[in-house]
Write a structure and sequence with these properties.
The protein is mainly α. It has a single domain, classed as TorD-like (Orthogonal Bundle), CATH 1.10.3480.10. It contains nine helices and no strands. The radius of gyration is 19 Å and the shape is globular. It starts with 9 loop residues before the first helix and ends in a 7-residue tail after the last helix.
Length: 241
């Protein structure tokens, strides 16, 4: 008796493709290291998005030092959501992300903070994967819950920073990072209007983030007292904050 061919529901197959694309975007925002280029090349070869295929090609020439100059600690740009949320409490932002992770059993092996672009995108990929399994299992309720949560996560944690990050990267020769940012923006959408909290760290209440996400404007006076921020917030942000 011959084995029956394995088939997959079309919607589940589509979701698996979305999951792979999100995983690739997250990977492109990670630090290039041993095995990184091979994984990026494999994922890029399987995707149909021209931006991600372009990023995959450019990643062949990626260098760790060049990446760190742009997105590393003290680099030209912040790769973290906290660097683009002008009036949101960073501790609350990190807490909200961890709640999403716990609710959907996401435990990534990572070296980056949870609000780093690489981790944010990897989580969306994980959610698309979970939704694909729910669809394949004909569990409509779980699929709908997962989809709604993922869409909310993208809206609240990626849309606020995808546009500003892509705009800043446009001003540099930054290899795979620019097409990756463009692909992220195409999926996350424009920065929501009036989507900010009512708290701002002293010295960060400015009209817009500077190129280094440092202070942009203001009187130039030093704040009266040094404000304590969680170590996870300051890790990976420019040193002048």
């Amino acid at each position: 008796m011959s084995a029956q061919p394995c088939t997959i529901e079309p919607r589940a197959a589509e979701l698996l493709g979305e999951a792979a694309d999100w995983r690739l975007i997250g990977l492109l925002f990670e630090r290039p290291r041993e095995g990184w280029k091979k994984t990026v090349a494999e994922l890029a070869a399987a995707c149909t998005d021209p931006l991600l295929r372009e990023a995959g090609e450019l990643a062949r020439e990626a260098e760790e030092g060049r990446y760190l100059a742009f997105l590393g600690p003290g680099g030209a740009l912040s790769p973290r959501e906290s660097g683009y949320r002008r009036t949101a409490d960073p501790a609350r932002t990190l807490s909200e992300i961890r709640i999403f992770h716990a609710a959907f059993a996401f435990e990534p092996e990572r070296e980056d903070p949870v609000d780093h672009m690489s981790v944010l995108c990897a989580f969306v990929g994980w959610m698309r994967l979970k939704e694909a399994y729910a669809v394949a299992d004909d569990d409509r309720e779980s699929a709908e819950i997962t989809r709604a949560a993922a869409d909310r996560f993208v809206r609240e944690h990626l849309a606020p920073c995808a546009g500003p990050l892509a705009e800043r990267l446009e001003q540099f020769e930054c290899g795979q990072l620019l097409p990756a940012a463009r692909a992220l923006l195409a999926r996350a959408g424009a920065r929501p209007k009036n989507f900010e909290g009512d708290w701002v760290p002293e010295g960060l209440g400015v009209e817009d983030c500077s190129m280094s996400c440092g202070l942009a404007g203001g009187s130039g006076e030093e704040p009266e007292g040094e404000q304590e921020l969680p170590p996870e917030f300051t890790a990976g942000l420019p040193r002048d904050l």
